[in-house]
């Protein structure tokens, strides 16, 4: 069932805000994700301040994690040994407001008016509630929050209490260690959800407080990472705290006062976090480091406004004539900023810093789904993510030796650089993560022109991943190069031979490395890479004239598409072996390969592949809809393209996969960016120059956005009849539009677009009914 789109009175389609106009019980956890704030380093879920009104509150710092020894029921050599899980850091967003003896909460009190917003233009959260108290007073509480950007560990919260008559107010501001609170472990029933630790995680190091200030620090029991916290309070009219209590799990500052009708009480809470392995030394505690980062609440709000003013000036994407889609698009772009802006040299967790889903791990998502967005909007941020991968090279080389391959083998899921995927068939076997890193490296270098990175870290990444592929694969009796025993992006077919996506991306990786002029490569190694790439086996079904997902995929039993819709997603309802022996996909796999390596396939090959695989793709993965939409647009299915895009843009807003409570699907938000830029505007890269082949939906009046390409800021404006290009800053840029090259400068270049003619859809004999879109809609 849809959430946001199902009730537009409660959630109006305002273009620059997500707004909730009245409270209803039942979806608190999902809304905590949708109203979350973050900056890529620090995140705070959008929970209400009262404990009774929060379902899964919490705050997170990217990379701050605990570890444990993975216990395998049946062990084997090379299995992942060390589990890693993001930590719920001590959470500062907690208040208790008691008016004339009544503790205010949405669950128990009488609410006269309610409005909650998160403003995309400023990054500021606000919740204003008017209460009718049992004493007869009408009281309005207004909470506002923002995270810092220049000061990335900062959080500012203000709470105002106003009344229509004099009331007795008892207001407590708390910091709660949520990590060690007893919470149900949901991961046993859903592998997408985070588990819980059996023992205590955060061990207190410093617990100090007095006069409205708190200085607290903890150390994770096993990882040894520390988190420090400094909190200062300020009140209007200089009210002094009634008491300040510091504890290892619950610290508080309490104010008891009379609030008059002509003088609201305002409490400002300035919070600073410091975390990681290096926040403390022999001279300084983590709380002292945090204290040095304290900023006033107003300064934090100013930082947020200034950041988003700059962000939207070059990162906004405007769809004319579609207000409901426009709000959803901006929400997705807002989430991308919140997940990446101040991650600095770190990875991007699958849920950003909005929740604990997938344990806070980094996957291939960041290279394939997030790096395109970062590369073209924040190239410095893209480079930092790649630098983070480069820092993992030593561990990746050790892991490669464990798996009996050369070069570097990066972990499928990780925080600290070690493999954390305990189920190797859908984890370690996904060797294609190496090619994702190589591909993102190549794209960044191509789009940025960063020669220093290309010759240094970038070359190392390409070389070491190429060495992994050449040792993993082999030349068969047929003279072709094969790669066996791998799992591609589609986790519903695991440990297969010659997965097409893997082979296509490995071929790219080998060619990119062979093209380097680098002293670490000798002529023999270069020639070996070239031959392996040129002889790469790509499975092809001669009967259907379709590239096969792997050597055996076309021999599998078709899935029974009369399976009840309540049985999706399949991974929660069927044993993996049942799924593996059927022709059914979790996500686009071959289709994704044809998108990323667009120059290697003909239009007919792409169309036949899409027509064959789209109907048997369940959409159980949130990574699928965006890619299917992009390729649907290219091969000539405009209605399917728009349907897939609409599904992608509302995945979290409508909670269509039922797990938005655990955090935003950040890779999907990156896919929304790619759907607009690469799907409907038709951008393809890594050729001789940027290439556009637009496919604007007939329902849309126009589409416009900016791209940062090789030091230029390119404005792209698309309408039904033309593509208009202009360089807003930097020099001229050559651009290919449907095979015609234009030199674009400050003066707009308008290119007329003729309607695109497409052949009839491919009809495969005995094909199953279309499944992907109806099933996704049913799940939602």
Task: From the structure above, extract its key features.
780 residues; alpha+beta; 24% strand; globular
Task: Explain this structure.
This protein has 780 residues and is an alpha+beta fold. Helices cover 28% and strands 24% of the residues. The chain has 18 helices and 34 strands. The longest helix is centred in the middle third of the chain and has 22 residues, at 451-472.
Offer a quick outline of the entry.
With 780 residues, the chain is of the alpha+beta class. It is 28% helix and 24% strand. The strands form nine sheets. The chain has a nine-stranded antiparallel sheet, covered by helices on one side.
Stretches where pLDDT is under 50 for at least 5 consecutive residues are: 767-780
Q: What class do helices, strands and sheet pairing give? A: alpha+beta
- How large, in whole angstroms, is the Cα Rg? 27 Å
Average pLDDT score: 95
Distance between the termini: 5 Å
State the shape.
globular
What is the helix tally? 18
Largest beta sheet: what is the strand line-up? Answer: 1-9-10-11-12-19-16-15-14
Main sheet attributes: strand count, strand direction, barrel closure: 9 strands, antiparallel
Annotate the secondary structure layout.
Elements: E1 17-20, H1 28-34, E2 37-38, E3 42-44, E4 59-61, E5 65-69, E6 82-86, E7 91-99, E8 102-103, E9 110-119, E10 124-132, E11 138-147, E12 154-163, E13 167-176, E14 202-210, E15 213-220, E16 226-235, E17 243-245, E18 250-259, E19 265-276, H2 286-292, H3 297-315, E20 318-320, H4 323-340, H5 365-377, H6 379-391, H7 393-402, H8 433-448, H9 451-472, E21 474-475, E22 481-482, H10 500-514, H11 523-534, E23 540-541, E24 546-547, E25 557-558, H12 576-580, E26 582-583, H13 590-596, H14 603-613, H15 624-635, H16 638-649, H17 666-680, E27 683-684, E28 691-692, E29 702-709, E30 712-719, E31 722-729, E32 733-737, E33 740-744, E34 749-752, H18 772-779
Parallel strand pairs: 25-26, 28-32
Antiparallel strand pairs: 1-9, 2-3, 3-4, 5-6, 7-8, 7-13, 9-10, 10-11, 11-12, 12-19, 13-18, 14-15, 15-16, 16-19, 17-18, 20-29, 21-22, 23-24, 27-28, 29-30, 30-31, 31-34, 32-33
């Amino acid at each position: 069932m849809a959430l946001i789109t199902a009730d537009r009175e409660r959630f109006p389609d305002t273009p620059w805000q997500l707004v909730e106009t009245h409270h209803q019980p039942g979806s608190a956890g999902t809304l905590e994700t949708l109203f979350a704030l973050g900056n890529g380093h620090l995140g705070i879920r959008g929970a209400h301040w009262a404990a009774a009104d929060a379902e899964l509150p919490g705050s997170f710092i990217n990379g701050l994690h605990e570890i444990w020894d993975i216990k395998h029921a049946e062990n084997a050599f090379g299995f992942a040994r060390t589990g890693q899980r993001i930590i719920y850091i001590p959470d500062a967003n907690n208040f208790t407001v008691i008016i004339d003896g009544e503790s205010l909460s949405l669950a128990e009190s009488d609410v006269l008016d309610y409005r909650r917003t998160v403003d995309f233009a400023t990054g500021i959260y606000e919740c204003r509630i008017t209460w009718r108290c049992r004493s007869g007073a009408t009281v309005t509480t207004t909470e506002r929050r923002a995270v810092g950007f220049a000061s990335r560990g900062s959080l500012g919260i203000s709470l105002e209490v106003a009344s229509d008559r004099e009331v007795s107010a008892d207001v407590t501001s708390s910091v709660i260690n949520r990590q060690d609170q007893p919470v149900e472990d949901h991961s046993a029933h859903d592998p997408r959800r985070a588990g819980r630790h059996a023992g205590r995680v955060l061990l207190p190091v410093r617990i100090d407080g007095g006069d409205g200030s708190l200085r607290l620090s903890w150390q994770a029991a096993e990882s040894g990472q520390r988190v420090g916290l400094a909190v200062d309070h300020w009140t209007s009219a200089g009210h002094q705290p009634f008491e300040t209590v510091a504890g290892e799990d619950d610290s508080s500052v309490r104010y008891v006062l009379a609030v008059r009708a002509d003088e609201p009480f305002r409490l400002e809470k300035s919070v600073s976090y410091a975390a990681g392995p290096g926040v403390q030394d022999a001279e300084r505690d983590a709380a002292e480091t945090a204290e040095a980062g304290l900023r006033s609440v107003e300064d934090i709000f100013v930082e947020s406004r200034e950041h988003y003013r700059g962000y939207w000036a070059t990162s906004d994407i405007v769809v004319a004539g579609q207000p409901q889609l426009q709000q959803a698009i901006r929400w997705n772009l807002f989430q991308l900023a919140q997940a990446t802006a101040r991650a600095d040299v770190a990875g991007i967790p699958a849920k950003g810093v909005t929740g604990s889903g997938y344990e806070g791990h980094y996957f291939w998502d960041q290279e394939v789904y997030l790096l395109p967005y970062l590369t073209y909007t924040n190239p410095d941020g893209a480079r930092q993510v790649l630098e983070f991968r480069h820092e993992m090279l030593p561990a990746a080389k050790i892991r490669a030796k464990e798996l009996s391959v050369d070069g570097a083998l990066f972990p499928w899921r990780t925080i600290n650089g070690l493999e954390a995927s305990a189920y190797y068939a859908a984890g370690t076997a996904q060797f294609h993560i190496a090619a994702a890193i190589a591909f993102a490296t190549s794209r960044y270098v191509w789009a940025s022109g960063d020669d220093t990175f290309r010759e240094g870290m970038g070359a190392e990444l390409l070389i070491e991943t190429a060495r992994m592929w050449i040792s993993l694969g082999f030349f068969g009796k047929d003279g072709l190069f094969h790669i066996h025993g791998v799992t591609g992006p589609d986790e519903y077919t695991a440990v297969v031979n010659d997965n097409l996506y893997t082979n296509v991306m490995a071929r790219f990786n080998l060619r990119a490395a062979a093209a380097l002029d680098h002293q670490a490569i000798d002529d023999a190694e270069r020639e070996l890479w070239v031959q392996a790439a040129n002889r790469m086996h790509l499975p092809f079904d001669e009967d259907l004239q379709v590239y096969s997902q792997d050597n055996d995929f076309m021999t599998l039993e078709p899935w029974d598409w009369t399976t009840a819709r309540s049985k999706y997603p399949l991974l929660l309802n069927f044993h993996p072996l049942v799924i593996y022996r059927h022709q059914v996909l979790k996500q686009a796999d071959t289709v994704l390969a044809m998108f990323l390596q667009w120059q290697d396939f003909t239009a007919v090959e792409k169309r036949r592949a899409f027509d064959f695989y789209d109907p048997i793709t369940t959409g159980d993965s949130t990574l699928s809809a965006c890619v299917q939409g992009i390729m649907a647009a290219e091969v000539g299915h405009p209605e399917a393209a728009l349907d897939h895009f609409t599904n992608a843009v509302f995945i979290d807003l409508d909670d269509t996969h039922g797990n938005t409570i655990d955090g935003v699907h950040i890779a999907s938000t990156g896919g929304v960016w790619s759907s607009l830029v690469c799907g409907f505007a038709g951008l393809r890269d890594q050729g001789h120059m940027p290439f556009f082949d637009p496919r604007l939906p007939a329902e849309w009046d126009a589409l416009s956005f900016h791209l940062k390409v090789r030091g230029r800021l390119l404005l792209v404006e698309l309408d039904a009849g033309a593509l208009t290009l202009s360089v807003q800053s930097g020099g001229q840029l050559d651009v290919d539009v449907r095979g015609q090259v234009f030199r674009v400068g400050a003066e707009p270049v308008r290119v007329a677009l003729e309607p695109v003619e497409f052949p009839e859809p491919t009809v495969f004999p005995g094909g199953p009914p279309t499944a992907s879109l109806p099933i996704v809609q049913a799940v939602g």
